[in-house]
Amino acid sequence: MAVNEVYQYSIVSALMDGVASHGTPIARVLEHGDHGLGTFRNMVGEMIVLDGDVYQMKADGSVVHVDPATTVTPFATVTRFRPTVTIRGAVTGKAGLKDLLTRLIPKARNHFLIVRMDGVFRRVNVRTAGGQLTPREGMVDVCARQTTHTFEGVKGTIVGFRCPGYVMGVNVAGDHFHFIAEDRKRGGHILEFETDGDVDIAAAQMSQFRLELPTEDDEFNEAELKLQAQGIKAVEG
Amino acid sequence: MAVNEVYQYSIVSALMDGVASHGTPIARVLEHGDHGLGTFRNMVGEMIVLDGDVYQMKADGSVVHVDPATTVTPFATVTRFRPTVTIRGAVTGKAGLKDLLTRLIPKARNHFLIVRMDGVFRRVNVRTAGGQLTPREGMVDVCARQTTHTFEGVKGTIVGFRCPGYVMGVNVAGDHFHFIAEDRKRGGHILEFETDGDVDIAAAQMSQFRLELPTEDDEFNEAELKLQAQGIKAVEG
């Protein structure tokens, strides 16, 4: 696969419906990208893919370096990231990053974006999903028990996507960021952040989207997959 | 690209918003498939792709064999079709075909399907979009002026897709069929049909979906692309 193309396994609506018992080997996902986000079987923790390495950020705050050959994912989005825009500057939180991306890449309203930020953060608030209590438990219920953490004065990296509104349900419309500390010991799904001075921002616009659906998966086949836009915004926004 | 994978250029919501002034060379689309549906610049006519040949079915009832090297499409969906299910039987219209597909391929509720039917039809009702009167005229207005034709006792072929509900707006959720007569002189978007005795039905389930978005296209960049599910059902259902 070429660079800066979106590859996605399964759809967010499947997670909403609790389809997370099975998945695809992460090694297969990595054939299509070296940066990205996702989750793990039974929605245990948050996934971040960084320079081809995969980390599982757990609800207790710990981070595990994942072996892609022996671990599967029920949902992941990755790209082979080659930045087309780079800039150094301070970013005042999610809203600031949103504005910056729109300014940096103005003609991407209906395209996908990938972004990576490296630097020192004054503060990062994350949440981490702890996992399903039972098979098919939906993401709204799983995230109702999410753990939140605040990291202060931490060096690390944000990886995120912006998806166009028309893929809501397939993926998350709008911005969606995960964070991992440089020591690879802390991280999660970003609720809010603030940089401490300037950070390095790299981004690329993407016009190719490749979706692979689960096969031989009764949970996926039987799920209703109705659009739950408000629910997705609540747990992923 | 492998067989039985969906390749799509642009999204149906863009047509709804009247984004149809530009497009991609049809020759590029054919690199990804030999069967499919679509439209042409300014939504002039209905496209059917059959065994790698592309036909433009116009509102006056005529059909043109299209040169893929010199013609562009603002929206098309194709697949390199290799049937995994074939059957011979009578089909009593769109509802009958819908039931038959669900019976033939029961575990495809959340997957894509491609279907082709060859035979003699007692009756085929089609509509054909005549095209935009002005740039950015939306598909609902274009289709308000559509022409309908009824063909009786005609030998021909139906090509169609079934798309899962969660791609509504990206494509058309549900079934969507076009027809072309064996003499390649009549055809259109199917409103209803009835077979005359048995026909040959071939289908395949598809779990890979590849979407290519227009680039360098201000119309696409500037379009709102809000989901108009009712409008899509009205003009494409």
TrEMBL record, chains A, B:
InterPro entries: Acetolactate_a_deCO2ase. GO terms for molecular function: acetolactate decarboxylase activity. Keywords: Acetoin biosynthesis, Decarboxylase, Lyase. It is an enzyme of class 4 (lyase). Its EC number is 4.1.1.5. Coiled coil: none annotated. GO terms for biological process: acetoin biosynthetic process. It catalyses: (2S)-2-acetolactate + H(+) = (R)-acetoin + CO2. Pathway: Polyol metabolism; (R,R)-butane-2,3-diol biosynthesis; (R,R)-butane-2,3-diol from pyruvate: step 2/3. NCBIfam families: acetolac_decarb. Belongs to the alpha-acetolactate decarboxylase family. This is Alpha-acetolactate decarboxylase. The lineage of its organism: Eukaryota, Fungi, Dikarya, Ascomycota, Pezizomycotina.
